[in-house]
């Protein structure tokens, strides 16, 4: 169902710390113009941990309104509370989102049975297609392959997974266990091509906030078996892929967008602006790629 390039959209704030709706609309338009297949608002890159519940839903509603059906909106509606995740997912469905991204519950570190019941409860509460989100470095727990398979077999609307564990071997395991109809999306820009080589269908990308056309082209060339062209694009963009994780995401990507004049460089604590040395590294990379 889902393939191609989906942008993990940042949430722009004004200098007073409020949502910057004009900047958000501009970012959505840039993704449409850049050829992205969809956007993923209010995920990790959208600073979901510091966005209040009403604000969270409001951002999804705005993204759906701004998109006007021109690309898909996969709403980040996961939480470490099952009840909260259900509330946000139902609100996203009501708002007209096309799917839901469900991160593994963080901090409370459930067992595999707990993960299964958590995602099953959410899937039963909505008709939206659900993409699981495996990112053990942030959550302290991994959604094991057998749990993913069990969910896909039990819940028809669990249709895919964003895989951000950094392991090609796991992508192979997922593909062998679930087959070609289950959608695997890379959660790491630098691993998109290796993951696609063993069964992933595309990427939920941080870098496409900056270079949507480049990421879109790279993925499309690989899909169309122009593997060498895709590899060349990967290598051209790799310095950006690398530097966008010099510090905790989304600090570098928001710094880059601010250097481009697209947003204010505003974060919500506990995130803080990028350090001076890393900022200069990022600036040099953006200049070398003629982005600024």
Write up this protein.
The two termini are 35 Å apart. This protein has 292 residues and is an alpha/beta fold. Strand 2 (38-40), helix 2 and strand 3 form a beta-alpha-beta unit. The chain is globular and about 50 Å long. The chain has an 8-stranded parallel β-barrel with strand order 1-2-3-4-5-6-7-8, surrounded by 6 helices. The chain has helices at residues 21-33, 53-67, 82-95, 112-124, 136-139, 145-154, 168-178, 192-197, 208-223, 227-243, 251-259, 276-288, and strands at 4-8, 38-40, 72-76, 99-103, 130-134, 158-163, 183-186, 202-205. It has a single domain (4-224), classed as TIM Barrel (Alpha-Beta Barrel), CATH 3.20.20.70. The model has no long low-confidence stretch (mean pLDDT 97).
Order of helices and strands: EHEHEHEHEHHEHEHEHHHH
| C-alpha-based Rg, rounded | 18 Å
Number of domains: 1
CATH topology: TIM Barrel
**Percent of residues in beta strands:** 5-15%
Portion of residues in helices? Answer: 40-55%
The CATH class turns out to be Alpha Beta
Cα shape: globular
Largest sheet composition: 8 strands, parallel, barrel
List segments where confidence is low: pLDDT < 50 over at least 5 consecutive residues.
none
CATH superfamily: Aldolase class I
For the record, give the distance between the C-alpha atoms at the N and C termini, rounded to a whole number: 35 Å
Spatial strand order of the main sheet: 1-2-3-4-5-6-7-8
Q: Give the overall average pLDDT.
A: 97
SS field, number of helical segments:
12
Q: Please give the number of β-strands.
A: 8
**Secondary structure category:** alpha/beta
- The CATH architecture assignment turns out to be Alpha-Beta Barrel
